[in-house]
Amino acid sequence: MLAYNALREHMCCSCHCDGEHLTRLLLRPPPLQNTAHNGHVQFDMLFSARAWKGAGSGHWQDVQLLVPRAKRSKKRARILSLESNDDIQPLPSPPEPLSVRVDHGQFCKLISSETRSRVCLTVHDGKLHKTGFDHLRQIVQHAPGISLANLLRIHHLSARMKVTLAYILAQSVWQYYDSDWMKTAWTSETIQFIEECAGEQGGIFAFKPYLSVRFGDEEDPLAGERSTIDGEIHHYPRVRALGTMLVEIGIGSPLPMNYSARTISSSVAAAVNEHLLQAIQHSKNERLWRDCDYPDYLAAVSSCLHPCIFGSATSMPAVGGEGEEPFIHGLKRRRDILYDKVVFPLEELLQRTRWMDQLTSISPLETPTESVPAHGVVAEQLPSPAKDADDAGAAPPAQTDPESKRKARRWLLQMRRLNHELAAAQAKPISPAARVRIAVLDTGCDDNAAFFLHSDHGSRLQEWKDWVDESEQWQDQHGHGTHLVSLIMQIAPDALMYVARVARSPDELLGASDNVAKAISWASKEWRADIISMSFGYAEEQRNISRAIRGALYERDDAVLFFAAASNYGANEREMFPARHDSVISIRCTNFDGDFEGFNPARSQDEETAFGTLGMDVPSSWLSTHHQAEEYKSGSSVAAAVAAAMAAGLLGYAGLRSGGCASLNVAEKLRTRKGMLAVFRALATPTLKERYLYLAPWKWMEGSDEVRWATLVAALSRVC
């Protein structure tokens, strides 16, 4: 309380102008070492040089405020004194400077001076003292900040940025929970970001939020620790507001309605309850959570928004009650719950993702070059498959339509719903031995990517073989393989994944045919893969790969499926190898509506039917070292992975339905190229191009489970 009270005495502006100086308190993650500066706790703050009147506020003055560390009780507990652990950061210990008391009326002059230095203040005997000046630490633009709400409207935050920011805010709310810093409601409007201008590392940093502090004797009615308003569902405004911010950060967009004093009409309870309901609804909408659907994060959100979690620690005396002991006990209990149910899960998430040690090394937010919707990011081009040394850079044109990205996400969501329906229709669970095995031959897989840190995802990464460096460690130096592996896992949620690294990048695949051939044999013999996915191609036949394919089919009695990307080089170039091999299923690229893209190769005379599926603007996981957890990619290589995943879903469904001789025969036929193509024809949708079929099982979703099974049986009845 010392810092807040000492500053409040000086907030009456003496600049002979209306308004007051803007105040920003930097919210920092917990220090790695619990040290202080000469027994003091440090606060980093910014003050506007001029009083705010709705126009320019001059420059921001960097201020360091040191407050004496409060004495701890002998009984060690998680609830520490607010002044004991607040924003401490290790500092050198210079000789104690001369302390000069800041009298009333001098503070305005102090923060409006153009000295290009940091003003160093301390609190002594409850009064503010100046101890000198230091080099600037907070070098920021001389412009108003941007609120969290506007930041989410303009910028795209990666999963790492979201989790880091959520943790810092949750930790700060817990830290200041029963202090005067909470007199202003903490919302996506009062949490601000200020652009830094420190050389090459300038910009807005997601790990440096500021609280917009308003000094005054009256507490915001929506910022109290506990509310007794009749009719309210959730009686803890500070926790409720934190939960709302966590939702907004997680979905990457502010909620449609942010209540404030002017939104409150005759019924405060109605406004509060309405906003709580919105936050809960958004927290349960899976479509909105994209790259931040971590169970720990969602659990923290749920704990904040659930009205009963903190209600178990009321102990709140009525006005005029007997003493403050029940109040203090209840408050400390609620603060304990806040740490256990909200802060700790986010901390655990950061530890598991290995982001905890790099909280302050996140790159600044990129300046948007176009108007980006709340749930859109800019697409990047897909690295091309190998064709020849001079033409390795060709790639499909990048989509820039945000609608294409949204519809691609919706397409993937529909596939997940279909898989859930298929699994729910079967009473028996899937045994490990019955799970479909998919081998992906590509640039490898980064198992530290955020997607694989989900326990149900990481546990499905079965085996790894590196034909490039012979490393036993999972790795991907490019990202292409990681994207494809995670994409397949999204569409085929029960499949087991086996990854063979055959090249460092798609451009190196031209000289990697031996690796590919060895990987095919290994995937078939050692891994017993049901499906082998190859999202690459060569202009000419690679005889060693052909031999490996024929050998695998001979040994497995044709019961292994090969998928490959057709080409990204347009109708003037023929279909690539191994896609044109007569034992491989070739896949072309379509958009979300099933339109075949112009960069696909023309159907050859040897092809009875050309199959295509979604391959444009498809989101999936990327490297753990990248600033974004997901990337949008396009091309036939993406489409081939999607088709392989759909085939896995069909195999899994047939395996669950197998219960007699007839059903076993269906499952066996489906494991062959002829059988899978027959089912693809039955499920696919004709297009305007003759003998071009769009592969998407939407019409299969319309019938009952018996109708679905009958469709498979009918399609396979004509397969010998």
TrEMBL record:
Query: Which InterPro entries does UniProt cross-reference here?
Result: DUF7580 (IPR056002), Peptidase_S8/S53_dom (IPR000209), Peptidase_S8/S53_dom_sf (IPR036852), Peptidase_S8_subtilisin-like (IPR050131), Peptidase_S8_subtilisin-rel (IPR015500)
In this chain, the stretch annotated as Disordered covers 384-406
Annotated Pfam families: DUF7580 (PF24476), Peptidase_S8 (PF00082)
At the top level, the lineage of the source is Eukaryota
The chain positions of domain DUF7580 read 4-352
Q: Name one GO molecular function term.
A: serine-type endopeptidase activity
Composition-biased stretches (Low complexity)? 392-401
Any single GO BP term: proteolysis
Q: Which segments constitute the Peptidase S8/S53 domain?
A: 436-651
Q: Which UniProt keywords apply?
A: Hydrolase, Protease, Serine protease
**Similarity field:** Belongs to the peptidase S8 family.
> Can you say what this protein is called?
Peptidase S8/S53 domain-containing protein
Q: Which organism is it from?
A: Purpureocillium takamizusanense
